[in-house]
């Protein structure tokens, strides 16, 4: 297992609500207040302000009270989008895996789970992560990169409104953003520029969450940024071993002025995991099952301070699904 401080200190972040990208050819200026050139470090949130995407301060990164999920439509088997052709999804098995996933969130971890109904006209609707990014009390409803998925936002909007979150809608028709391309570390955002997410979408995210630095990361050979990375704990990035994953990590190193620990796993898909900080249980990590990725599971087993919960996603993986895809996690302050 490789678990060490990443390289040298990462590059200084830029102006508040600024977006950083790799150097690009000169182009006409966009009507935006964001810059692609690093300048002055944005003001850091005060210690009293939440620095975790799920709320509660950096020491409590991963705290969560609610999860929004969505039931599987049978249309997923034949009509869901997929990056490569492959075997058809076994719906019965996919349903069992999904029910186990929801059961862990609700029963084992004690979250309040809002389950939206399946919609047969939206075969990818189980992948709720892509349609909303929630940080503290604000929810950004995205504009998914695949046009067939844009109506999925409607049910998510109603769910988040029921939780009295501040809703921001992405209405710019030039913008695309999938939540699977958004990695929040508790300190800053990294946004993958992929087939599903573009620069304008990343800019709107930066405008929405102005207290945090936002950096863009080119994504090649994968659907999303989180197809090969995720947060496995406070300050700990799980990352796959492929050349593309390691190249993306190097970009993140260059864009941040914070030094993260990294946990390198042999399989890119296994690097997508869910970290939660549960008051009665401490550090909890949902990760892909040993029968799927035995070598990566052995790496996770070395996290002695974590409660490890293996969950299979064999069937949804056939249509590019992963663990983070199937929930939107929210930390609601006590009312």
TrEMBL record:
Q: Which domain of life is it from?
A: Eukaryota
The biological process GO terms on file are: arginine metabolic process; citrulline metabolic process; positive regulation of nitric oxide biosynthetic process
Q: What keywords tag this UniProt record?
A: Hydrolase
Work out whether the entry's keyword set contains Ion transport. Answer: no
Q: Which GO terms describe its molecular function?
A: amino acid binding; dimethylargininase activity
Under the heading Gene3D superfamilies, the entry gives: L-arginine/glycine Amidinotransferase, Chain A (3.75.10.10)
Q: Which GO terms describe its cellular component?
A: mitochondrion
The residues the record assigns to binding substrate are 81, 124, 129-130, 149, 196, 319
Q: Catalytic center at which residues?
A: 224 (proton donor), 325 (nucleophile)
Task: Give the family from UniProt.
Answer: Belongs to the DDAH family.
Check the record and name the PANTHER family matching this protein.
Answer: DIMETHYLARGININE DIMETHYLAMINOHYDROLASE, N(G),N(G)-DIMETHYLARGININE DIMETHYLAMINOHYDROLASE 1
Q: What's the protein name?
A: Dimethylarginine dimethylaminohydrolase 1
Instruction: Please give the organism.
Output: Zonotrichia albicollis
User: What is the gene called?
Assistant: DDAH1
